[in-house]
Amino acid sequence: MGRFNDALAQPGLGAIAEIKRRSPSAGDLRPDADPAAIAPAYAEAGAAAISVLVDERFGGTWDDLRTARATTTAPLLAKGFFSTDDHLRTAKEAGADAVLLLLRDLDDAETARLMQVAASLGLDTLVEAHDAAELDRGIALGAPVLGVNARDLATFAIDRRAQLELVARIPADRIVIAESGIQTRAQGAAAELAGADAVLVGSTLMRAADPAAKLTELLSRPLVKVCGLTREEDVAAAAEAGADLAGFILVPESPRAAAAVLPVPEGMLSVAVWVGEAGDSGADLDQVHTVEDGKVRGREAALLRNGVEVARVLDLPWEGTDPDHWRTAAATEGRIVLAGRLGPDNVREAIAAVRPWAVDAASSLESAPGIKDPDKVRRYVEAARS
Among residues 51, 149, 270, 281, which one is catalytic? Predict the structure, then answer.
């Protein structure tokens, strides 16, 4: 593998941060974008790689790639509509580490040949699909890095749900990139849990007042979950505070039982909380606790996506304590959702001690069981994200 592939294969969710001045779907994004300033800022903010549009339809030129190469050592992806050997040679000479190949515009023979030419030049390839048929072609061609674009290039419509289902189909031995439509941390996390190794983000960064700071925000962890929501106004308070996950307890015995999973804003993910086994709720994720006699729930829980465990929830015993809870959580590998009497006053300390993938609070954010206190919610989210 080359530098581009190596960078994307690292643990955790990575990002390919994009430099583009305009978009055919959105028009001007950042007409004065300067690769000499943006590329090193992206690298400093944690980008695994940087994508540079070199096509004039996006306001780009090959000089943008050359400028980025002169100002950063980060892996660079040349992005355009490439179909010839000369395109790939120009990309290499301009400083690219990888090139984009669009299955929409290339047949199998052309794609296979360009992948071989790229390899001979020392270039990695990002082979991009937009639908199931294209993805099947990319898999069959043995493309090591496969991207799934959520944007329909004919209508420019974004379909994240379809994208995630395609991402989940890609074999585990490939590097998977979710492209387009990522505007929030929760949307990036949804791609991560579906199997993406990285997200490619362009328009969201280019529209931001500070693109690098926006990239840092999208990649930051832990995610923040507000659980035990029962009312629409509390969902709105959690969203306004900046929470990523909204939890709804579908266990009648719970003092925070919800009648159903309520709608959440597009930038959040909903989590249905169950005991024993998950039912049908329409939530993005399910959190399933074990059964324990005499208790509303058992201590152990799994976070599931379409029935597949994607994280572990580490909680305190029901109405119990454990002085070693944080220490045990810190020693646990994998994605950890830390729960158990977290709130505005201790969540920052908990994050420092455990470094979890997400934090989860419910009862400490209430004015009464099942009724959230907006000020406590706000202070909890602010503390967790600071």
Answer: 149
